[in-house]
Fold this sequence. Notes:
About 30% of the residues lie in helices and about 20% in strands. It contains 24 helices and 29 strands.
Amino acid sequence: xxxxxxxxxxxxxxxxxxxxxxxxxxxxxxxxxxxxxxxxxxxxxxxxxxxxxxxxxxxxxxxxxxxxxxxxxxxxxxxxxxxxxxxxxxxxxxxxxxxxxxxxxxxxxxxxxxxxxxxxxxxxxxxxxxxxxxxxxxxxxxxxxxxxxxxxxxxxxxxxxxxxxxxxxxxxxxxxxxxxxxxxxxxxxxxxxxxxxxxxxxxxxxxxxxxxxxxxxxxxxxxxxxxxxxxxxxxxxxxxxxxxxxxxxxxxxxxxxxxxxxxxxxxxxxxxxxxxxxxxxxxxxxxxxxxxxxxxxxxxxxxxxxxxxxxxxxxxxxxxxxxxxxxxxxxxxxxxxxxxxxxxxxxxxxxxxxxxxxxxxxxxxxxxxxxxxxxxxxxxxxxxxxxxxxxxxxxxxxxxxxxxxxxxxxxxxxxxxxxxxxxxxxxxxxxxxxxxxxxxxxxxxxxxxxxxxxxxxxxxxxxxxxxxxxxxxxxxxxxxxxxxxxxxxxxxxxxxxxxxxxxxxxxxxxxxxxxxxxxxxxxxxxxxxxxxxxxxxxxxxxxxxxxxxxxxxxxxxxxxxxxxxxxxxxxxxxxxxxxxxxxxxxxxxxxxxxxxxxxxxxxxxxxxxxxxxxxxxxxxxxxxxxxxxxxxxxxxxxxxxxxxxxxxxxxxxxxxxxxxxxxxxxxxxxxxxxxxxxxxxxxxxxxxxxxxxxxxxxxxxxxxxxxxxxx
Length: 711
């Protein structure tokens, strides 16, 4: 099959999934141009513009690698590599049982890959031990949204609806740096930004609320208190469309504005202004990001801001609502189709007998063949190589050596494994630790689907064939599965065939893709899930057109009712509690982490793009000038930032808008510059989210050589 000269596809990075057109130009190689896709409308960020550079980075993996007796990774053929992996997995399973093998996936995998990976883990390996890096990104908002609305879709409305908003509250989100094309949809609105830092987004806000790290939930409770006491509550909406307000109010009643100011540092006047701006707006939204989620109480924090939105009558009303700004490229689809420890395709719970029966029927196995729920992501990584933990780990689309909290401990655990296998297209820090490295295709070399932050299913299209010696993830899973004794037909290698099976597996689930097809997507249809493939009788019962008119998808959820059986949204009874770790004399500062414009996730991709690397070449730490002065630091010197778990080295940047008791580090850098060397692994009890956003540290001059703080 000849390769196309131009394809319509999407950016390989964040969940905005900006539309692009990729072309092969004789003199320039692969060229990207933004398309007039609704979410980006002809715009791209710096990462999107430079994405073609990923396709031919100098250290692109092009051959399987196996670690020899000399400790070095050596190129081998595909049969030798897959045989080595399969024989080791069979040996480990025979000795230790099926849960001795584990799988760690990624929120950047296509829907087809995520689906087949979950199927492979549960059938070919027979293991319950599968989770993915989305547990570090969106899991708290997913748990809170499911509890409140009965269903989790990041934005239950199209991104473009934000363009008509009068007021938008952004809680722990910095889209001006993390997804810049989104900002054009926020130009009209008065922005209320909740963030401990004066970010680029906060600079554009009409109101910046700057709470101390770890106190966002106290602020949410205080804002709900003001909404109720000052007469802003939407009483008819709360009565007719919700339940549980009284229990939520009992908690919020004790969080009067002055108490909130003492705990958070946010002035009473600013609290009242924020509530008034939202309540008086004709169209208003509350949007949360990682800053609200990445805490040991992240689910409760997001629930607190959902409570505020419900009290003001926003969710389920066209032109207003609550949403989560999903981070990873397929963070939405990645958590819907089975690579999460407790889920089966269609966003079904693995503990639900009906869900197990349905998926088992699609897979052609008895329900009892499916394992139960496994460990969440950090719990899985923490258990590696222990007596009762996995002895083998297969990693697809993730780099936990950099991205996981308490990173040195995680790398120690991976080093204790009998077998570490990594499928990637560049030698990430995790791949460099592996016993076997499997080179796989990347975004412009593959077909598939992605699901963006507002639940729209998108087509990824191939412009190029992968380099000789490189296989797709689907081919890797197929090759391993048949070596583990599975029938070949159970693991298709054609993305379209996998998607058609995914449709059947998702049918009737919360994330129902059964009415979506490659044909409809390729015809240009805009399809948000749930999108049902309905029998005639069901169509008539739902007053939908006959079979000639397929289901149109659901761009806006909850307009008539929420997804709970009674149709009502639930307030959550939540209360503030301290972070797992607070400051003390030997660690007197708070550290918080986040992203910067030039880089993405662990930086394994963007640090290899020359333009992006030159923009942000090394780890840095933002510090208030007074704080730096007390520590004997000046702008541009190297500092040692230490917590009870370890130390990281970063270049000092003096920032006058930082809170004096807080420092900020980006998490994109490797080696001694890993911010996650200091972060805390305390987990949210409901979502399994680690507490990335707050830990106690001290900062001091770096007196030892630090040669690897650069990417």
